[in-house]
Amino acid sequence: MIQTIGFSQFCDAFNHAGRKDQFSYQAKRVLFDYLDETGEGNDEYDLDVIALCCEYSESTVQDVASDYSIDIDGNTHDEARGLVMEYLDEQTTVCGTTADGAIVYAQF
Fold first, then answer.
1. SS3 106
2. Which of 9, 40, 60, 61 could anchor a disulfide with 5, C-beta 3.0 to 4.6 Å?
3. Is residue 77 part of a domain?
4. What SS3 class is residue 1?
5. pLDDT of res. 63
6. Whole domain around residue 85: which residue ranges?
7. Cα-based angle 1, 21, 32 (whole degrees, multiple of 5)
8. CA-to-CA distance for 39 and 34, rounded, in angstroms?
9. CB under 8 Å to 22, separation ≥6 — which residues?
């Protein structure tokens, strides 16, 4: 059986899986839109919240820089963000950013 879901049901699935705090509300929106736009969220996509939590991450610029040893010392916030985004673009897929600056990306 195939069921098409909207953003509200997408968020509900995280709640039901016990993962409501895995991503912020904004990051869930970014991820939902990314899956929808890329076709990953088409009618034949099997929503697996646990897999999404394993495959994607929401992090700040500073956390990504720390996690992947990206030297951002001495750079302005915008320069640091550019270095981190460049690194992520080369290594993985960036789904987007939230209004408060968090980056949603495919983990690698």
1. strand
2. 9
3. yes
4. coil
5. 97
6. 7-106
7. 45
8. 8
9. 14, 53
Mean pLDDT within 31-53: 83
Taking the C-alpha atoms of residue 49 and residue 88, their distance in angstroms, rounded to an integer, is 23
Residue keyed to tokens 């950013």:
97
What's the rounded mean pLDDT across residues 38-51? 75
10-24 residue pLDDT tens: 999 999 999 999 999
Tokens 């495919």 map to which residue? 106
Measured CA to CA in angstroms, residue 100 lies from 38, 65, 69, 72, 85 at distances of: 23, 17, 23, 19, 15
The tally of domains found in the chain comes to 1
Tokens representing 34 are 């990314």
The pLDDT score that the predictor gives to residue 95 is 98
**Do you know the residue count of the chain?**
108
Residue 68 is which amino acid?
Y
